[in-house]
Structure formats: C-alpha cells, structure tokens
Amino acid sequence: MKHCSKCILPDNFQNISFDQKGVCNYCNNYRKFVPKGEKYLIAELEKAKAKKRPYDALVPISGGKDSTYILYLAKKKYGLNVLTFTYDNGFFSDIALENIKTMVDKLNVDHIFFHHNWELQKKMYRAALINSGEICGVCGLGINGITLKLATDWKIPIILLGHTPLEDNSFSQENIYDYFRLNKILKDSNISDKEIKQFLIYPKLTFFSIFFKSKTGAFARQINPLFYIENPSDKEMSEILKKEMYWRDKSDAEFSKHFDCLAEPFSNFVREHRFGYSRRICQLSTMVRRNEISREEAEKIHQNDKLLAKPENLELICEKLSLSKDDVKNILNVKLFKYKKYISKSNKLFSKLKSIKDK
Ligand SMILES: [Zn+2]
C-alpha cells in the first residue's frame, strides 16, 4: 500500500490522487485554516444574550476535549449563562463521566443527563452495525434530536457545538449521519416507526430543513465556535482545560480524540477492516498538515491505535451489544457502499459540493 509522502493517508482513501512527488491531493489542496473572525462569533453570542431567556446557550458536553473547550469558551471567556447537557450513549468511559461530574460541580452550571432506555438504544446500534457496518451516526443523530428538542422546549436561542476544522474529511462516504439513510437501515431491520420516532425525535430532518428551521427561529441556531477563532493546538487545549476546567486527560494515549467513547476503537476497527483506514488517520493527517505533529509521530500514534483496538475493547462492546462472533464476522463483511444511494436530496447536493472541493 502506498501512503502520501507528506501525511499518512493511504492510496485507498476516498477520492485520493498523488502528484509526481507522491504528495496527495488533500495535502496539495490544504489551505491554512482561516477563522471566520471572533467578532462575528461575539455578535452571535450578544444577540443570544439580548433575548434575555433563562439560558443564553445550550452546550452539549461529552467529557472529551472539544466539547469541554466549548464550555470553557462559553462560560469563562464569553460569560454566557449556559445549560449543559450530556447524551449518555451507553459507552461512556469512566474518565469522561468523572470529567463531566467534576466540571459541572466546579463550574456551577446546570446540567441534564439524558439516555434512551438501553433496550431501544441497543436495538438501534445493532441494526445499524449488522446492516450497514456503521455505528457512529446512530449516536450522532440521537444527540442531534435531543439537543434540538431541549433547546426548543427551553427556548434557548443558540446551541454551541464542538465540531472542529480538524475533522474535515474524517467521515466515510457511507456515513449514516443522514436521517433518510438511517431510517432505511432501521426499517430494513424491522424497527417500528414508533420506536424510530422515540429515538430520533425528528426522524425526517435534512441538513437543509435544520438550516431553514434555524433561520426561521423554529430551531435554535447551531454555532461551531471553533470555526470562528484561531484554534489552540491539541496540546495547548489540554493545558487550558486542565488548568481552567478541572479536566483530566487519559494518561495512556497521546492526542486522544473521542476517548470519551468506548465504542470509538471498535468503530475504527470495523472501518479499518472494511475500508482499509479509520477516521483517526484523517485526523492525524490533518494534524500533520497543521504542523501540530510530525509525520513520524502521526505514524506512531496510528500504529498504537491499532494495538488499542483489540481484544479487550472488542469483547466489551460485543458483550454490551450482544454480538456473537458470527455477527462480528458479518459486520466486517458488510458490502461497501450498501446504503450509498439512500441519501436525502439536500444531503446529496451537499456531499457533491464537498467532493468537488476535495478534488
Ligand atoms: Zn497527504
């Protein structure tokens, strides 16, 4: 297998091509991240404050680095009155739970814990995994539904999210962060409309309808502060969080992303097997391009990831989801792009525009 000579992306990566020097199109097209500008962010936050609602913003927190940093910005830097909330996806690591508890306590913020009953949640995870080989979108859309619902019911004007420019390109072409696609997968698994509605809350959303509803005020505006400001490096972020947010890092993993979720190594293991690469390889490659780490360091972390993915973690996930050895075998062999054509029209347009940008 050939890898880019600058980053660590492999030659089987989606839409990849190499120039004569062996540098990939993602590296060649890479432009240094230019933030939209903090003044625009502050303007949005001031607008929210001016509404004088009980809370200025809803901040979902997972105990991981990015969402904790958003809470730090909201509370300590911009002085917002926030409601924090955690969607328990059933796979929280102890350290993530501990982080959440300490932070909520020390920062003196209101906090809501939400989890679907495990039978329902497990049914969704199993259906998605066994039918499509993917799991992350189940949790992603689960969080999305309850986040929008909470903000609507509590009349909170904005939702502050921890998406970062670092995660660009890190999702596969058949990700299931699409209501249309996930509905189809769940229906193929004979899950009833009633259960789907209970789980997704708004089962018919698209990127476009969310955008439209937030423009008309039916939904809260979703804002990603990390796209507005100069981002600290991963290391700087940890230092700020430890000092200001009583946050603890996982000690045995460097540059940990998503250590808050125990299913992450499992989902990476499945992706690695099916596609030949995980989404970590994209994040690490982006960090190389941003000069946060060297190519050698990225390679080392990536190799270490592979070791971490098995076998204890696999056993734990299989036990929680009642997956047999045969189930796992089937999941690893789900046909690639099985649900690719099931995509809402607006999301299709969105991904087309994105793939043009990547080329
Ligand atoms: Zn590259």
Task: List key phrases describing it.
five-stranded parallel sheet; 359 residues; Rossmann fold; binds zinc ion; 5 strands; mainly alpha
Helical residue percent? 40-55%
CATH class: Alpha Beta
Q: What value does the average pLDDT take?
A: 88
Q: What is Rg?
A: 20 Å
Let me know the largest β-sheet. Answer: 5 strands, parallel
Q: How far from one another are the termini? A: 21 Å
* Secondary-structure class: mainly alpha
Count of structural domains? 1
CATH superfamily: HUPs
Shape: globular
CATH topology tier name? Rossmann fold
Q: What share of the residues does DSSP label as strand, in percent? A: 5-15%
- Poorly predicted runs: none
Give the beta-strand count.
5
Order of helices and strands: HHEHEHEHHEHHHEHHHHHHH
Number of helices: 16
Bound molecules: zinc ion
CATH architecture: 3-Layer(aba) Sandwich
Kindly summarize this structure in a few lines.
The protein contains 16 helices and 5 strands. By secondary structure, it is mainly alpha-helical.
